[in-house]
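Narrative of accomplishments. A recurring question from our advisory board has been how the design workflow behaves on a single, concrete structure rather than in aggregate. To address it, we present the structure tokens for one chain from the evaluation set, followed by the sequence designed for it. No filtering or post-editing was applied between the two.
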């Protein structure tokens, strides 16, 4: 494999790694936004539960105030009954007192109902507060993790760009232009393809015999006649040959 092809392969690897890092860096703020959105949902749930509990308490206080008002009214009516001069007046006061007593009974029943609801509503508030506290802790952990990941990814990305710049500086400008042109065409995916088995490793189209022989000679840059990707030939290593070339221990 020619040095230029090795350099191009490394550049391709760096570009893919760089793209992955940039994608990950860009995704982290979105991830934080999502978990903060979940936190907002917990806040809204707690607000709703608190509002329901507060409304319950207001209704209970109102019912208690209504009972007090009716009791005061009954007290006044009884005082007035003592001054009644006819039976009709006396019965009228008595009917008013009975009406007030019925209203008190309604308010007492309402208070009992509200007290029954109050326990569940209070439980909902406490559950929502606990869930919100847990979610806040989760969000802070995720934010710390995201900040750490971002710093790490940015460091790796800087290293990738630095190594790429060194390789590009030593590469034939025409070869780099061709690489960039193919890279743009395929949106950075598989610019170079292995054709060791006689076919393009990307589009899987077989090479013409003479074209394949030219690729083996590695005298010039060969591109796939179908997809345009840069091809390289990486001859298989003979295990027997490797065994013979390994130095024997003394």
């Amino acid at each position: 494999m020619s040095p230029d092809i090795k350099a191009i392969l490394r550049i391709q690897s760096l570009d893919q790694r760089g793209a992955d890092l940039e994608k990950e860096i860009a995704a982290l703020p979105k991830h934080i936004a999502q978990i903060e959105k979940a936190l907002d949902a917990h806040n809204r749930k707690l607000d709703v539960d608190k509002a329901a509990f507060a409304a319950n308490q207001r209704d209970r206080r109102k019912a208690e105030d209504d009972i007090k008002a009716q009791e005061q009214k009954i007290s006044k009516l009884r005082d007035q009954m003592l001054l009644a001069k006819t039976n009709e007046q006396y019965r009228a006061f008595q009917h008013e007192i009975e009406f007030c007593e019925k209203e008190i009974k309604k308010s007492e029943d309402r208070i009992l109902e509200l007290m029954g609801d109050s326990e569940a509503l209070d439980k909902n508030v406490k559950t929502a507060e606990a869930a919100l506290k847990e979610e806040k802790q989760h969000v802070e952990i995720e934010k710390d993790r995201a900040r750490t990941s971002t710093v790490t990814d940015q460091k790796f990305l800087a290293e990738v760009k630095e190594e790429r710049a060194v390789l590009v500086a030593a590469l034939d400008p025409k070869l780099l232009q061709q690489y960039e042109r193919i890279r743009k065409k395929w949106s950075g995916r598989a610019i170079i393809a292995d054709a060791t088995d006689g076919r393009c490793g990307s589009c899987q189209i077989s090479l013409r015999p003479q074209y394949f022989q030219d690729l083996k000679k590695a005298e010039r840059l060969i591109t796939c006649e179908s997809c345009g990707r840069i091809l390289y030939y990486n001859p298989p290593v003979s295990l027997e040959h490797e065994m013979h070339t390994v130095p024997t221990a003394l």
